[in-house]
Each structure stands twice: as C-alpha cells, then as structure tokens.
Amino acid sequence: MTLGIALLALSCCESASDKPVYLDEKKPLELRVEDALSRMTLEEKVKVLHAQSKFSSAGVPRLGIPDLWCTDGPHGIRPEVLWDKWRQAGWTNDSCVAFPALTCLAATWSEEMSALYGKSIGEEARYREKDVLLGPGVNIYRTPLNGRNFEYMGEDPCLASVMVVPYIQEVQKNGVAVCVKHYALNNQESLRHEYDAVVDDRTLNEIYLPAFKAAVQQGGAWSIMGSYNLYKGQHVCHNQYLLNDILKGEWGFDGAVISDWGGCHDTDEAITNGLDLEFGTWTDGLTMGATNGYDAYHLAHAYLERLRDGRASEEVLNDKVRRVLRLNFRTAMRSDKPYGSLCSPEHYEAARRIGGEGIVLLKNEGGLLPVKADAKKILVVGENAIKMMTVGGGSSSLKVQREVSPLDGIRAAAPAGVQVVYERGYVGDVSGSYNGVVTGQDLSESRSSAQLIADACSQAADADVVIFVGGLNKAAHQDCEDSDRYGLELPYGQDAVIKALAAVNPSLAVVIVSGNAVAMPWVEDVNAIVEAWYGGSEAGNAIADVLFGKVNPSGKLPFTFPIRLEDNGAHALGAYDPKATEAHYSEGIFVGYRWAQKHGIKPLFAFGHGLSYTAFEYSNPKAKRSVMRADGTLKMSVTVTNTGELAGKEVVQLYIKDVEASLERPEMELKAFRKIALEPGESKVVEFVVTPDMLKFYDPAKGDWVLEPGRFVACIGASSEDIRHRIGFEVK
Ligand code: BGC
What we know:
CATH topology of the largest domain: TIM Barrel
Radius of gyration: 26 Å
Oligomer: single chain
Strand order of the largest sheet: 1-2-3-4-6-9
Number of domains: 3
Number of helices: 20
Strand content: 15-25%
CATH architecture of the largest domain: Alpha-Beta Barrel
Mean pLDDT: 96
Largest sheet: 6 strands, mixed
Number of strands: 28
Bound molecules: beta-D-glucopyranose
C-alpha cells in the first residue's frame, strides 16, 4: 500500500481517536455517510429503506446505527401504538400537549409564533425520543371541502412559504427531523389513493410547489413525505418528475423521501423514481410468503432480488441509503441533542399564545366584544363549547394530558359573580374515540332539536351576552382525514339555532371552531363572529382570552370564506368531483382570493381579513424611487398608527399587481407581510423591500420564472379586500 492510499484509508475509516469515521461527529457529514455506506452489506442497505413496524425503520445493529422512529404530527406527538398494529400500546407516559391546528398557526401570520410552535413541538418529540416528526403540512387550500385543510397553512403560497420555515428550523434544532407533507397536490381526501392531479405547469409552480420549495431550501427540511395521489399517471411516492427532477434535481434536496403510509405501489418505480424510505399501513396483505410482512414491502425483498440479479443498480441504492443515513446522523445518531421536554408549563403557554394570536375576529358590530365588564349573565350555547377536539380527525389525533374546552375557558375567565349558563342547542357528533383513545365524555342527549332550541332561547332572553360555540368537528366528512365535507353549510341544524338565538337576543357572538370555511346565512343577524380554529390543549383559554379582551385579536384569515361554494374556482368550474379519478385543476392559478378578485366576487370574509379591538390607520406610503431595475430592489414603506385605546397587533400585507403582462395574472398577489405590535397612539414605519422574485411569473413556454419589465402596483393593506394605499412603480 502506498503512503497516499494508506492515509486515505485512515481518513475514510478511522479518526485519530480510533473511532470509525462514521461515528466521529467532528467529521463532515458526507464523509461519515460514505464511511458507513462502505461498511454495509447489500442486505443491510436494503433493510434501512423500509419500515420494520408501524412507525419505525431499522438501523444497522451490527454497526451501532440506531433505528429511526417517526411520529405524527403535525399538532402534537401521537400516542404509542403497538409495534405491528394500529391499536394503542397502552402506555401511560405518552400524553402530550396539543398545539393549535396549522390553520390557526397560519392565521397568526407571525414567524415568531411559527418558531415558538416548532420549538415546543420539537421538544415534545425529542422527549418522546422520536427522530422524525410527520409534519408540517403545506398543501394549498384549494377547496373548502378538503377534510384535511385543518392540517395545512391556507390558500396562499407566500403565506404558507413564510410560515413553514421557522417551524422546521426550530423542530430540527432538537435533533428531530420534520417530514413535510404531503408532497404534492394532495388537495382533497376523496379518492386520495386514486386521483391523478391534472394541473398545468404554471399552476404547479406558482401555487402548489412554493411552500414545499421554501421548506426544503429555506427551512432545510431533512425529510419529505410523498403524497397518496398521482401526478402524470404516477403515484407521487415514486414520481420521476416531482421527486427526481424537481425535488432532488432542481431544488437540491439531500434528505430522504418517505412514502405516506401505504403510498408505495410499484417496486420498479419506487426504485427508480425517488422514493427512499417506504412506510406502510398494512403488514399483511402484501405477503409474498415471507414470515415478516415488512419483507414484502416494495423496497424490501423485491428490491433485494432485483439487486442480486442485476435488474437494479447499486448506484441508485447507494443514493437512497446515503439519504437515510444522513437523516439518521442528523437525528437518531446525533449525540449532542437536547433532551426535550413534555407537557411543560412553557408548552401550555405556547399553545395558548399561538391560539390567541391565531383566533380571527371576523365581525364585531357595536363593539359587542370583548364581553363587557358589567355583564351579569353569560349564556354559552353549542356542542363545540364542550366537545373535546383533540381526539379524531385521522392521523393527527392525539392523547392529551388535558384539554380546556371553550366552556371551561369562559367559566375560568368570567369575573367573579358572573353567572355562566350552558345550553346544548344542538346535537352533533357524540362519539369520542379515535384509534382506541377515548375522551371519556358522555355527550348523549335525549331532548329533541326543537326542545334544545327552545331551552337555549329561554335562557338567552335575559342573558347579557350569548356566546354560541359551534362549527365543525373531527368526525368523518367534517374536518377529518380520508374524507371530504359534503358541503359548505354548518352541520346538525346549527343555522337554525343561531337564527333563533339572534331573534331573541341581539348580543350574540358566534364562535366557529373549524379548520375550514363555513357558510353563514345568518351573518347579518349576529353582531360578532369569531373563527377560533382547533386550539388544542389550551383551546378554551385562548378563546376566553379573546372574548374577554385579555388578548386583543390579531389573527387574519389564511383562506377566503366564500359566501357560496360556487364562489370558489374549483367548484364554479365543476372541477372538484369527489368521485372522479382525475382531478382537473381547471381554475389554474386562480385559487382562493385570486379567483374571487378575477371575477369580482365579494367573499363572505376575505383572505387576510381579521379585526382588532383597536383600530389602525395607514398613512404616508412611500417608495424610494418610482423605477426599479430588473436586477435591483425597491424599498417602500407605510406608517401604521394605532388610533384606538388598546394595545394591539396588525398584520400589514403587501400585494403586488402586475399592470401589463404577456400572460394573464391575478388581480394581485400576496408577496410579503409584517406583524407589528402598537401601543395606543403609537406609530411604526413598516418597510418592505420589493425584489425581482416578487414580480415574476412562471412562464410554461420557457419552463422558467420570468420578470417582464413594465408597470406594477404595490398594494398595501389590512386584507386582500382592504387595500389602504397603492404605490405604482415601473420595472426597467
Ligand atoms: C397520513 C399521514 C400520516 C401517516 C402516518 C397517513 O394516513 O396521510 O399524514 O403521517 O398516515 O400516520
């Protein structure tokens, strides 16, 4: 052996301390990966590419490389299930804090809240010794019927892109990887394993991919989950275009692609089309006579056979193994990880703060809210005031240490001497279990609907304020995985209850608990409306904080509330069909407010809308210049003043309108936002820097983003329908 080779061998396989290189954390990651790879047998390489239990995949025991453990995600750490079954493992130390649903996080429009969320849930995952957190989700809100919208961050690619990044970074500081889901085009639950998303390149690039790209490139996500649906005729878990060409090619993703559970359907495609780690929902049913069902996975025996007889190349195999090793070294094998923490007071506080900042005050006529200090009797009506919402909804279902209901939150916050009375009003979903986790709540009710309404109305007559808490829940065909909603309407006859209450007492506030927009045929009949989302463990406290004014609401809608379903593009065009195996995204880039504005449709509540108990005035809009160079930037600013009597927070939104373009563009598009806090009377100058990227569109003919010189308008305002100032400028 020449000296050179000897030195190389030493640097590759051993460090000065005689530690093998792959175990030496001081060595560069890639060197360690190569070293570990070089020590693995073919069988060991294949072994790390598929599940060995419901939520774990094998390491390399001979080399001391540990197993990888995954957990749902995305709102809290899922309770333990049995090794091989979906049944509960029966642990007593796996209760968690449920954080608000991701729609609520998106509604905070606050990067600080996203970071706090990521830090907190990352610590919980770490304490529970998980390596991969299955979340966050950033599928775009295309239809209000999608049963999983509550797990995502709304309808706008800019908002979702900004909000996802801090979550990822903070989770991963714990030595826990995120697994961003569901990449890509999983925008409905109906036929989720069967539908092929037919979407044009421009729409794909402008609407459906940006948040994933931001997650990878800015967030630095260590893993990503392939979605169940198909695209271009291939399941996305093994999709040449989305995984190899875009994700790993264009975006340079160096992490692992993990299949959604049972999302892998074809061995050869899985091998060649970018899947790295296969997880499944079933262990039997996939049998090839193997005693261990996991050996029957596509990336298991079938892969090994192809490698042995030369049908599959070791080069492709090595790429997959490198990605899984990277994931392992970044998480399970990192020795300087923090220990994490579970159910800490800080995590409850975080859940409450995020909940409070995400709650959206939609309407507040006559200043009905916050509840007046002299109120003597508060009537609370509605099933969602008492129903636990952390159980149900599919894989995001949790086993919480505690959950504060809206009624309990209101009772705790009401000043001493105030009488808080509860009436059911309607009966919705009385079940209280998911996958063996039971709420233990008895929601049975024997009164008729008419009687329930009559009882609520008789209590409403002399109440100082009536708070109706309704909306959706986590049962099938509501906000729930694996099924979509049937319509936009509130279920269980809630509209009738609200109308009846409004007729008896005008001091009616409606609190909607949901992850989706709902129709509000009574919108003119009630004085206050609050969208409270699914708030998790601290839901009731966060709601009460807003209702009683301890928190001045500052949430803004992350998606449009249409008046009717047909006001949404996919539905207007009949392009959402729950029974069709091809989902044609015919509305193209005109998703959410882009559709409403193109057609001059007035939404019930607009994207970006949200009121405060104080008022903000926008003044003094300024741009540094009136011309921007195509390779330069342009600074602009606006002054925002709190003109009311309470401290509050405002989300200042910048939309860009392209006045003349060779392709049709939306009326305007969100490009940046800032959340600022202002004391009464205080003013702040909010600055934006317009960059060329903010002005570009994706040109399908060129297959690239282009910036066309010409006139643009910066629209600065408090919502997509409340633009306070317009600043024209020209790009040369
Ligand atoms: C869901 C994923 C989830 C996985 C594991 C699937 O059915 O689509 O989001 O992470 O199950 O529970």
